[in-house]
Amino acid sequence: MRKSIVTSKPSEARRPVAVSREPSIGLALGGGGARGLAHVLILEAFDELGIRPTFITGTSIGAIYGAAYAAGLSAALIRAHTEEILAQRLDLARNLIAARSDPVQKLFRLFSLRSSLLKPETLLEHILPSRVPRRFEDLRIPLAVVATDFYAQDSIVFTEGDLRQAIAASIALPVIFQPVIVNNRALMDGGLVDPLPFDLASAAADISVAVDVSGAPRSDPREMGPGAVEAIVACSQILQRSLVREKLKRQQPDIYIDVDVDAFHVLEFHRFREILAAAAPAKDLLKRKLDLLMVSHTVPAAEPVPAITDQSPQAMETPPPKRRRLSLGLKSRKRKE
């Protein structure tokens, strides 16, 4: 807690003290498949500046990295865990891209699943760090995870309860993953309706930071066109890119970072180091913008500070600012007509 310094004489009444505090930061991490590996560098930028967001929201792979960071893991630990997982268990990405004849069936065989589609809950058990808790309530930083209600054609925001179930719903890309059933609702990839939920970050903090990794479909001059599965996945990315662009026309976050990851396919997880190298300029840009905004952004006290007449040390302490209260639970966010 910061303390205001009183320099007047004990016999004098204290004048009201001008009080300011560091602004709260809401971080929105978008979806984008393997392109979302770039989020690792974004988290490193926060750690290198010695800043932690006070609220995190994420969609799809952004929900995975958002949960790990909200659990209190450092960016360095998250990076090391990602490298280990990709090397040991997700080497299938290289096989999927190389064998385009039937990539989905190869995916099923590698995971030894009888179901026609991969269960996202099963995948999460392999890739989430063990220190990520089971419930939202045990996270160190408040987190909101976005998924899509398939039949209601609306977004669902999870902020409490079963964390892994919420993330599983958020990453459930159609064709690749089974939908997650919650309260008789079929939930799928949050990117279908809200690929970059920076409006949630804006509502929960003084400064909003949005990280867009949706990218554009990769062009390969050696091919006449995409394969069937690649086309389905790429169409999802086109949709997400369009949704983000339309959303930015109505509302702007304080800091918007568009990571240049167009050169990578959304399933190319094996190109982890190349994706991080491509995202390095975005990390540097975020650090510059965030550092400048934190220095220049002064947040007034939640309430005026009264004159101090008591000379005790306790009276010299600045009262803590009021926190914004976030509504918790499973809720729908109606789209604007």
Task: Write a concise keyword list for the protein shown above.
337 residues; alpha/beta; 10 helices; disordered N terminus; disordered C terminus
SSE layout and pairing:
Blueprint: E1 20-21, E2 25-29, H1 39-49, E3 55-59, H2 61-70, H3 75-88, H4 92-98, H5 103-111, H6 120-127, E4 143-149, E5 154-158, H7 163-171, E6 180-182, E7 185-189, H8 198-204, E8 207-212, H9 228-250, E9 255-258, H10 272-296, E10 299-300, E11 331-333
Parallel strand pairs: 2-3, 2-8, 3-4, 8-9
Antiparallel strand pairs: 1-10, 4-5, 4-7, 5-11, 6-7
Helix pairs in contact: 1-3, 1-10, 2-7, 4-5, 6-7
Q: Can you describe this structure in just a few lines?
A:
36% of the residues lie in helices and 14% in strands. It has 337 residues and is α/β, with parallel strands linked by helices. It starts with 19 loop residues before the first strand and ends with a strand.
